[in-house]
Design a protein that fits this description.
The protein is mainly alpha-helical. It is built from 16 helices and seven strands. The strands form two sheets. A five-stranded mixed beta sheet has the order 1-6-7-4-3. Strands 2-5 form a two-stranded antiparallel sheet. A hairpin with a 6-residue loop joins β6 (255-258) and β7 (265-269). Mean pLDDT is 86; it is low at 1-26 and 434-453. The structure holds zinc ion.
């Protein structure tokens, strides 16, 4: 199964997937804990701890449990997918699907297409119970989704349709390369995959994302104008900001930059607009602009090109190794035989499963860079801390360093708030808001007021 970081990249939701969840509408003003207020004795660790301590223990335990359960789900996704692929090979069902396709047409490209359709439906069907648990039941158990089953199922069906079209195109191109280019196929295969990925990233905001959600231009000048002003100040030629109705799927707050070139757009979801303070919106937008200005999309394409090249080299070697041992038993004649697809899927999923920490570290590093950019652009360290805490609803806030390295595709809450409080300490005397300057000893903490972005 495709790892999370790759899915994240494919749909180019390089995003600050943050969340503002509450049964009641929270007051839309920032409440800064005492130890995080500016003063001569401001301490970065004490301020970070004070922010983290604002989350009640039961809520923290709940999000820890949700996120740690996700570690096991990654393993189960991999195990279930591997078991299905081995089953297709061992029962020779894969070989029979190939024979069926060969019976219908003598054209190799059409055989590949005819094989791929039942392959996708069988594997999707067998994985469906786990998909329902992971994507629907569990999300409701943790109060992260408010979507009805019918609406969720519709999204899955649309996803399957997209997978069918894009998957069929990719598989036909890849098998054509394998059949025509011989021993060097894996280099060309990797390059073709990268080109396909770039095309998907390019068209996703315009042709794929609207199949799931409605995007509308944001018109409210109170929200739009400061965002566009920040964009101009940072050299971003944006003239529109989009609002997306993600409240139809969940109550998570998020914003993202998607596409590139002419399809590049900044989108805010409606949960963010409804549930976060202006400071939080500003810092989130600063973060997204960071992805743009720091060219994260282009750097990620380069990074994933290298990952794909390594993945296809491994695939080439491991396909030959496996087929030499078990090819005859599975009825798979060689790497040009479309019946090899379950084996190729299995081997690539092993590669991506093992390299997950590497991919996570790449995206986590870019996210951290975007955080720092956002702090400098929006100058809202407390808004940043507040929005980071809202991750506490679904991402463990305070993990150990090895845990963060292995499993986190975004920095943890502690890492992000520490960066925000460090920025606040170093900028305390030059912040443009009077309330953020060091207070005279007799100043009342209640005189602090959040400033508008
Ligand atoms: Zn981000």
């Amino acid at each position: 199964m495709t790892p999370r970081y790759l899915v994240c990249f494919v749909f180019l939701v390089i995003c600050i997937s943050t969340i503002c969840l509450s049964e009641t509408t929270p007051p839309l003003t920032l409440e800064i804990p005492a130890a995080a207020r500016p003063g001569p004795n401001f301490d970065v660790k004490a301020a970070t701890d004070a922010w983290l301590a604002t989350i009640p223990p039961d809520k923290k335990a709940r999000s820890d449990s949700y996120f740690e359960g996700g570690y096991w789900l990654q393993l189960w996704d991999f195990v279930v997918s591997a078991a299905i692929m081995l089953w297709l090979l061992q029962t020779r069902l894969s070989a029979r699907m190939r024979d069926w396709a060969a019976h219908l047409t003598s054209r190799k490209n059409l055989q590949t297409l005819l094989y791929f359709v039942p392959f996708l439906f069988v594997t999707t069907l067998l994985q469906f119970p786990l998909t329902v648990y992971e994507g629907y039941i569990r999300e409701h158990q943790y109060g992260l989704s408010n979507q009805t089953f019918g609406s969720w199922f519709r999204d899955q069906a649309v996803g399957l349709g997209i997978g069918l079209v894009l998957g069929a195109i990719a598989i036909m191109i890849l098998f054509a390369i394998v059949r025509r280019l011989g021993a060097s196929w894996w280099v060309w295969g990797a390059m073709a995959s990268i080109v396909l990925l770039v095309i998907v990233v390019l068209i996703a905001p315009v042709y794929i994302a609207p199949l799931f959600n409605t995007y509308t231009k944001l018109n409210d000048p109170k929200i739009k104008d400061p965002i566009l002003s920040m964009a101009r100040a940072n050299g971003i030629p944006a003239s529109d900001v989009y609002e997306v109705d993600e409240s139809r799927q969940s109550s998570r707050v998020s914003a993202n930059v998607s596409g590139f070139g002419k399809t590049m757009r900044i989108s805010l979801n409606d949960n963010l607009l409804k549930r976060c303070t202006p400071e939080e919106i500003a810092t989130t937008m600063g973060h997204e602009m960071g992805h743009y200005v720091l060219n994260h999309i282009y750097k990620s394409i380069l990074f994933f090109s290298l990952v794909f090249l390594a993945g296809f080299a491994f695939l080439n070697w491991s396909l030959h190794w496996s087929l030499a041992r078990w090819g005859e038993r599975w009825g798979v004649t060689g790497i040009t035989d479309v019946a090899v697809l379950p084996l190729a899927t299995l081997l690539l999923s092993i590669f991506f499963f093992v390299t997950t920490p590497l991919g996570n570290t790449w995206t986590r590093t870019e996210e951290y860079e975007a955080d720092i950019f956002g702090l400098n652009a929006a100058r809202q360290p407390d808004g940043e801390a507040a929005v980071d805490l809202k991750l506490g609803e679904y991402r463990k806030l305070d993990p150990g360093p090895i845990e963060e390295y292995l499993f986190y595709d975004h920095p943890s809450g502690r890492t992000r708030i520490t960066a925000a409080m460090r920025w606040k300490k170093e900028n305390m005397n030059i912040l443009d808001e009077p309330s953020a300057r060091p207070q005279p000893p007799n100043a009342s903490p209640s005189s602090l007021s959040p400033h508008q972005p």
